[in-house]
Amino acid sequence: MLCAVADTHAIIWYIFADTRLSKTAVNTFEKIAIEGNQIAFSSITLAEIVYLSERGCINVDTLNLLLEAINKDNALLVEIPFDQKIAKCLKQVDRTQIPELCDRIIATGVYLNVPIISRDHKIQMSDLETIW
């Protein structure tokens, strides 16, 4: 069962056990894993990871590590393709609260009706249910 959607930074920090991932977020990842459930992320995260690694902002191995993680049997992380259903949900994410397009694709959480794991203050201050 999908229990949450994680944004790009949360995914990256989880993969590398980075201390910037909040204790609450770490506990959420661990609890969902223990229960045998999954955390989704948008396919846009893959593009963001390529972009960030090309710019030298993140470890160049990030994409490969994420792909390995999602291709394991009983993987905790699962990719959700950006499609027309999620595009329609973008209208439910207030553009005045979350103006950046890539951030608004967190509408994946709206579509799946699950909370969003995100450090982004605009997402946290929005009407969306967030975990951090």
Task: Describe, in plain words, how this protein is organized in 3D.
The protein has 132 residues and is α/β, with parallel strands linked by helices. It has a single domain (2-131), classed as Rossmann fold. It contains 8 helices and 5 strands, in the order E-H-H-E-H-H-E-H-H-H-E-H-E. It has helices at 8-15, 23-34, 44-54, 62-70, 84-89, 101-104, 107-112, 121-125, and strands at residues 2-6, 38-42, 77-80, 116-117, 130-131. The chain has a 5-stranded parallel β-sheet. Helix 8 (121-125) links the parallel strand 4 and strand 5. The longest helix is centred in the first third of the chain and has 12 residues, at 23-34. It is globular, with a radius of gyration of 14 Å. The relative contact order is 0.21. The model has no long low-confidence stretch (mean pLDDT 94).
Quick summary:
The protein has 132 residues and is an alpha/beta fold.
Give the topology.
Elements: E1 2-6, H1 8-15, H2 23-34, E2 38-42, H3 44-54, H4 62-70, E3 77-80, H5 84-89, H6 101-104, H7 107-112, E4 116-117, H8 121-125, E5 130-131
Parallel strand pairs: 1-2, 1-4, 2-3, 4-5
